[in-house]
């Protein structure tokens, strides 16, 4: 068997201009939303990451036909012949975002069955907000072995007051409500740009959705939704990661299509560090010129528009190499500090207490044998590896491939020394 790993070498300051991919967190839910329609839809600017291929397999397993044009980043998805409402255990285990087909399946077919990831308890990877919402709309929810069944002859509109602005729960409720007669309201809804991209495509399909001030979404159900053509928004998280790679190598890069206006809190923190950051006209495009003496900054992850949890790990790399002490508090996920151990192997000074990391900046990180523990941590370790003295290796690259179409390719074009090697075991 061949096991692939990355070799990351100390790289020169990154320089140049880079294109971006479409947003992973938008495309997955948007692909799921097509279940609400019957017919052929076209998606442009699709990032062909492994999670997207998983979602393709999922839709195909339900009976959809999917045509891939990788050269033009286009997917054509024909949902006319969906005949199954059950997501198989293998796909569910590999991709938590599979839960996002539950709302569309319930709304269009009145039933859905999904395998629980690895048969684990719901509390371990909570989807309680999704399930409680469907139950309140009138769906019967039952657990049989490792399969979770939801069934409803009709869904009823509700006023939901979310205790937390969950991205996935907001999306799932919204999709279910588009075909539910009457007015559904979501108070304290998630406001992430990817949620807005979903709203945009649902509106094109004919859904009646209104975003009211203060995070309230109102959906008035319609009888049916029609197939559409849609272009996925750019990946703000990939943009943030590339900017950090330039920052930690002391470089200068330009991302002409980066959605700067949806990264404001993050970009403000980069400016506070001393980096020169310019956002283009109308909030599109970001240019960064790194400072030679970055200052440490503290931050807490928050729901949008706060500091994105998905950029916490890569931003930690920048704090490891900054002058001074920073405190990073992860508030969104309770288990998102797995990169700390890997960065410590590289010589980073980090004290971790629960989800609070206290970091004392060092002059250099050193190459080490790294194991990527999750998608965003894998991106963080890649940029740590190109900033560190010497050579690092990183295993667990399947995490990286799940989340990014070609992050390493983009970094290589900017000057990063990264190669993929395989080991025969
Ligand atoms: C999405 C993104 C992920 C991002 C996250 C927060 C996708 C495919 N993934 O994940 O990259 O980091 O938003 O911006 O879009 N929770 C519950 N019960 C629930 C649902 C969530 O307790 O039913 C908790 C989660 O465990 C977590 C918090 O709420 O602690 C936020 O989760 P949520 O906003 O739902 O994130 P995802 O939609 O899973």
What is the CATH superfamily of the largest domain? Enolpyruvate transferase domain
Mean pLDDT: 95
In quaternary terms, these chains amount to: single chain
CATH 2nd-level architecture of the largest domain: Alpha-beta prism
Helix fraction bin: 25-40%
CATH topology of the largest domain: UDP-n-acetylglucosamine1-carboxyvinyl-transferase, Chain
Beta-strand percentage range: 25-35%
**What small molecules accompany the polymer chains?**
uridine-diphosphate-N-acetylglucosamine
Radius of gyration: 22 Å
- Tally of extended strands? 24
Query: CATH class of the largest domain, anyone?
Result: Alpha Beta
How would you sum up the global shape? Answer: globular
Number of domains: 2
Widest sheet: strand order? 22-23-1-24
| Tally of helical segments | 14
Q: How many angstroms separate the termini?
A: 5 Å
Secondary-structure class: alpha/beta
Show unreliable segments. Answer: 118-123
Main β-sheet description: 4 strands, mixed
């Amino acid at each position: 068997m061949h096991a692939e790993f990355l070799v990351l070498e100390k790289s020169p300051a990154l320089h140049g201009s880079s294109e971006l991919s479409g947003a992973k967190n938008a495309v997955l839910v948007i692909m799921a939303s097509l279940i609400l329609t019957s017919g052929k839809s076209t998606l442009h600017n699709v990032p062909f990451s492994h999670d997207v291929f998983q979602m393709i397999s999922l839709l195909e397993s339900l009976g959809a036909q999917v045509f891939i044009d990788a050269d033009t980043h286009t997917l054509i998805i024909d949902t006319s012949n969906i005949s199954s409402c059950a997501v198989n255990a293998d796909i569910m285990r590999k991709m938590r975002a599979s839960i996002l087909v539950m709302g569309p399946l319930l709304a269009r077919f009145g039933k859905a069955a999904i395998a629980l990831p690895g048969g684990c308890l719901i509390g371990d990877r909570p989807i309680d907000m999704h399930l409680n919402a469907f139950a309140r709309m009138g769906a019967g929810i039952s657990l049989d072995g490792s399969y979770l069944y939801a069934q409803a002859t009709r869904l009823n509109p509700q006023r939901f007051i979310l205790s937390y602005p969950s991205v996935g729960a907001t999306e799932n409720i919204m999709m279910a409500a588009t075909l539910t007669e009457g007015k559904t309201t979501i108070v304290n809804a998630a406001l992430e740009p990817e949620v807005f991209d979903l709203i945009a495509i649902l509106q094109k399909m004919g859904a009646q959705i209104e975003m009211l001030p203060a995070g309230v979404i109102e959906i008035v159900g319609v009888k049916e939704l029609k197939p559409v053509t849609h272009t996925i928004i750019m990946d703000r998280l990939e943009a943030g990661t590339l900017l950090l790679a330039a920052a930690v190598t002391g470089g200068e890069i330009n991302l002409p299509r980066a959605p700067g206006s949806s990264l404001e809190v993050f970009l403000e923190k980069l400016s506070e560090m001393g980096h020169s950051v310019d956002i283009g006209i109308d909030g599109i495009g970001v240019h960064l010129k790194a400072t030679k003496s970055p200052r440490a900054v503290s931050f807490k992850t928050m729901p949008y528009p706060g500091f994105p949890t998905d950029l916490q790990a890569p931003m930690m790399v920048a704090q490891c190499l900054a002058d001074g002490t920073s405190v990073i508090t992860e508030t969104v996920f309770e288990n998102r500090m797995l990169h700390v151990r890997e960065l410590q192997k590289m010589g980073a000074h980090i004290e971790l207490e629960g989800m609070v990391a206290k970091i004392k900046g060092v002059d250099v990180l050193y190459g080490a044998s790294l194991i990527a523990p999750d998608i965003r941590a894998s991106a963080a370790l890649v940029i740590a590896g190109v900033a560190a003295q010497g050579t690092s290796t990183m295993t667990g690259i399947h995490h990286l491939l799940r989340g990014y179409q070609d992050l390493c390719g983009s970094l290589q074009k900017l000057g990063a020394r990264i190669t993929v090697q395989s080991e025969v075991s």
